[in-house]
């Protein structure tokens, strides 16, 4: 039970450690911000989801990339479709909340919501993300 609790607490503790280090040193800590990738069926759904994410202050910035071809297996069959991709810039500590919210409003049965930490970047841009997305 202790191991399970420790594993469940790891993201929270990591986020707190990153915030503390950043506050104390005044320097950017790799991984404090992330880019989430979210697929959408069409441009209107992409715009609606992007606006909803921004309205809830779960991100600072969302790119809506044009249609791309997607190939994937779904229920044992090879599928082909076009999709719109959202690139969502946010605090790493908000990824869980962002994912839960998007799943609650997304029309797909299993939407793609994945994220990667930002290792480095323009310090002023990263600070702007921080200022635009409130802490937990």
Automatic annotation (TrEMBL):
Keywords: Signal. One of its GO terms (biological process) is response to metal ion. Pfam families: CutA1. Residues 1-17 form the signal peptide. GO terms for molecular function: copper ion binding. Coiled coil: none annotated. The keyword Signal applies. Homotrimer. Belongs to the CutA family. This is CUTA protein. It comes from Mesembrinibis cayennensis.
């Amino acid at each position: 039970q202790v191991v399970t609790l420790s594993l469940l607490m790891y993201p929270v503790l990591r986020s707190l450690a990153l915030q503390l280090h950043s506050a104390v040193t005044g320097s950017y800590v790799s991984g404090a911000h992330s880019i989430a990738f979210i697929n959408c069926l069409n441009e209107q759904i992409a715009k609606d989801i992007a606006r909803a994410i921004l309205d809830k202050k779960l991100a600072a910035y969302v790119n809506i990339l044009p249609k791309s071809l997607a190939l994937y297996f779904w229920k044992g069959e090879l599928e082909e479709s076009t999709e719109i991709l959202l690139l969502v810039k946010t605090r790493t500590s908000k990824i869980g909340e962002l994912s839960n919210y998007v799943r609650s409003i997304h029309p797909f049965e299993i939407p793609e919501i994945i994220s990667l930490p930002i290792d480095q970047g323009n310090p002023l841009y990263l600070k702007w993300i921080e200022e635009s997305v409130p802490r937990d």
